[in-house]
Specification:
It is built from 1 helix and 8 strands, in the order αββββββββ. By secondary structure, the protein is mostly beta strands. The protein has one domain: Metal Binding Protein, Guanine Nucleotide Exchange Factor, Chain A.
């Protein structure tokens, strides 16, 4: 199944460059899901509208901020991040704790 990456104003603001990342827990290696990273730089936060194929974290964009869960590994229960509102763009995201996740660039055809 081929997934289309989102192509919106946020992607354009970051130079129009995107890649798909497989996100896993640094502690135990359990897969958390896939994430569309727009633009260059390190992964500091994961915007909710860019999370794909995650049992727990996909489709959270329509929730109220106070209903958002903490980002926790289902397998080892490690706390990986907290919900935040990125003020610059008024977008919901998970702010990742440093070194809490590993990421691997993958092709969208592979998920």
């Amino acid at each position: 199944m081929k997934n289309k990456l989102k192509n919106d104003k946020y992607k354009k603001n970051r130079g129009g460059y995107s890649r798909l990342l497989e996100i896993s827990c640094e502690g135990c290696g359990a897969a958390l899901g896939y994430y569309q990273k727009d633009g260059p730089g390190i992964l500091k936060r994961m915007y909710l509208d860019r999370i794909y194929k995650s049992d727990d974290y996909s489709d959270l964009s329509n929730k109220l901020f106070n209903e958002l869960p903490q980002l926790i590994c289902k397998k080892c229960k490690r706390h990986l991040g907290v919900p935040v509102i990125y003020e610059k763009e008024k977008r919901f995201a998970f702010r990742l704790f440093q070194g809490s996740v590993t990421k691997k660039i993958i092709k969208s055809e592979n998920i």
